[in-house]
Amino acid sequence: MSTRPTFLVTGATGRLGRAVVRQLAARGDALLLTGRSAARLAAVEAEHGVPGRVETLVVDATQPEGAQEAAAEAARRFGGLTGLVHLVGHFGPGPLMLTDVGEYESLLHANFLSAVVTTQAVLPHLGPGGRLVYFTSPLVQEPMAGLSAYAASKAALTTWMRSVAHEVKRRGVHANAVSLTIADTPDMRAERPGLDLSHTVTPDQVANAVRFLTGPDAEGVYGAVVPVHGRFGFSSALAGGPPAAPSAAAAPAATPVGAGRAG
Ligand SMILES: NC(=O)c1ccc[n+]([C@@H]2O[C@H](COP(=O)([O-])OP(=O)(O)OC[C@H]3O[C@@H](n4cnc5c(N)ncnc54)[C@H](OP(=O)(O)O)[C@@H]3O)[C@@H](O)[C@H]2O)c1
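Output (structure tokens, whole complex):
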């Protein structure tokens, strides 16, 4: 049995995969990275692969057979499995009347049912201290117009994760999620050239949260949704703009956290 933390990382070929893999690998974890595309996975392996420690498997882990194969292969190659980092997901905007029901089904599959299938395959391999990490969106709290299918699929994932967290914590397994706003990646910049980048987050900020949730400091954290939202926020014309920064003359000097009081 391996004493090294060992994770199955699904959807490792995506926009956040490299930062997550880099951080977990730097901690010394053993990783089995999966994706459906041999070419995309080979590119990730060329950058991060370490024989016997960071390996890849071409498989569709969102299908029951593929998920079973991936979980068993991770446990076989590394002598055990500590958890799952489920990066598989898909974004798809569209107003209700222009969105075919097939698109709803495909978003539910990519964002919700894929997590069900992969978790069912991984769970039998996990012991106390096990970790399950999923990825959701602030649109669950405030679903905006034109994003109903995506928001509903992430809402299903989030509610499901919180329910499952209660089930699996009895055996010491921790299920949690990272909620993120748009990540600043080369793909995103190419697709959305007009975006206000000050409201995005970096892949490394997301990976920091993954490292926390998969590490010893998250012991006892069950069913949490860790917000990596950067400066993103919802606004309404009714609320007006954010308050102006107080002028130096009018505002009392802030006391730094931990500073002692004089007198
Ligand atoms: N990037 C963001 O700004 C952002 C924002 C909010 C939430 N998230 C969530 O964070 C997670 C990771 O984000 P990301 O940007 O890295 O994701 P991504 O690049 O969109 O996708 C990650 C991987 O998921 C796999 N995948 C997508 N659709 C699939 C399907 N129908 N069946 C099977 N596999 C599928 C693809 O791997 P292969 O095709 O190689 O198999 C893809 O490389 C996702 O759950 C995403 O929804 C991301």
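Residues 254-263 have pLDDT under 50 and may be disordered.
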